[in-house]
Specification:
single chain; alpha/beta; seven-stranded parallel sheet; three-stranded mixed sheet; about 15% strand
């Protein structure tokens, strides 16, 4: 399979390195069918714990007549949010471009109401938000491979969702931002998040902003080179970076909607684990049953690709490495998965699929 990179760089040029486009957008909301299948199962991971079962059943009783509208439900974050909300007894309404599409039909089969809508069509959003208790907001962005939106589109969409939710009488809006928000990074598709956060904070309804760390799922995509026994990423081998499992984003959002008074008007940086490059290699080696080494992306590559260079610098100065208080988060959300537990649970199938993938040939544009 040949993947064209927007940067014009290729894996063949740099050794066993992952596609740059994947690394340039560490918050990609889209996902393969295999991960969608995994997401459909994740709400059951901790069902064996009696306390968790009782807590979720009580929450479900209070939410049974309330609906949360989920944007991006056919992608990673939105899909995990929809699954977690359904597990907690909420009604879920997914706004999709094509209700007859494969992913939309999968959502319907899981009990999610799907309605046709488009972020560029305010009237469709007003119809979707009608009588809803909450809205989960996440937008596509220009950093995604094959994206057909500009940075200005993303900001316009995010602001419109917030405004329409308020006008429709929605009680609570949850916006998924980025861990780098709150500062100017020089990476356009990251800096859009701060511009969307501003109108969200000014709403007269309850709002919560979450800033997820880099997804654990990104580390085991087939393009990352694990089938060749090596992983290259943004941090140095001895440098820690925070990560979160996508399924845990969904469960945190469900908890936020379930306790609106507690989480209203809060901005939360969220993560499940912090690992150095060496620790990543150790966990992957153990889970894979074969040696997997780690190195930072080559200095020459970081120098030649402007966005990658900026991302690496953001890791070095801590803004992309993450600064979430993991101890406090684990106390508040005991279900948060560390990387080794994720590899043994929701990530096991993804890792196995990656290890069995063939060499990916990357062609320059």
């Amino acid at each position: 399979m040949h993947l064209t990179l927007a940067s014009g760089f290729s894996v063949a040029d740099t050794g066993a390195n992952p596609p740059i486009r994947i690394l340039e957008h560490v918050y990609d909301q889209h996902v393969s069918d295999s991960l969608l299948k995994t997401s459909g199962k994740i709400s059951n991971v901790h069902q064996g714990h009696g306390h968790d079962r009782r807590e979720r059943s009580v929450v479900g009783m209070t939410n049974i007549n309330k609906t949360v509208v989920v944007l991006g439900a056919t992608g990673q974050q939105g899909g995990s949010v929809a699954a977690a909300l359904r597990a907690d007894g909420w009604g879920v309404r997914a706004v999709v471009r094509d209700p007859s599409g494969h992913r939309a039909r999968s959502l319907s089969a899981a009990g999610v109401e799907t309605v046709r809508g488009d972020l560029g069509d305010p009237e469709s959003l007003r119809a979707a938000f009608s009588d809803a208790h909450g809205v989960f907001s996440v937008q596509p962005n220009s950093g995604q491979a094959g994206a057909d939106v500009t940075n200005e589109d993303e900001v316009r969409f995010g602001a419109a969702v917030a405004e329409i939710a308020e006008r429709c009488g929605v009680a609570h809006l949850v916006y998924s931002s980025a861990v780098t928000a709150g500062s100017t990074t020089g990476v356009d598709h990251l800096d859009t998040k701060s511009r969307i956060e501003a109108p969200v904070r000014n709403l007269d309804i309850a709002s919560t902003i979450i800033r997820p760390a880099t997804f654990m799922e990104l580390l085991v995509t087939p393009e990352m080179g694990l089938d060749r026994g090596h992983l290259s990423f943004l941090m140095r081998p001895d440098q820690a970076m925070q990560f979160i499992a996508v399924r845990d984003i969904g469960r945190i959002v469900a908890a936020v909607f379930g306790s609106s008074d507690r989480y209203a008007n809060r901005t939360m940086e969220i993560a499940g684990d912090a690992l150095t490059g060496k620790a990543l290699a150790e966990h992957l080696t153990q889970a894979a049953g074969q040696p997997i080494s780690y190195s930072r992306l080559p200095t020459t590559l970081l120098a030649q690709d402007e966005v990658l260079g900026k991302l690496a610098a953001l890791v070095d100065d801590g803004r992309l490495a993450g600064n979430a208080n993991l101890d406090a988060l684990r106390a508040e959300f005991p279900f948060l998965l560390r990387f080794d537990r994720w590899l043994a649970g929701p990530g096991a199938g993804l890792l196995d699929e990656t290890l069995r993938s063939s060499d990916t040939g990357i062609a320059p544009r």
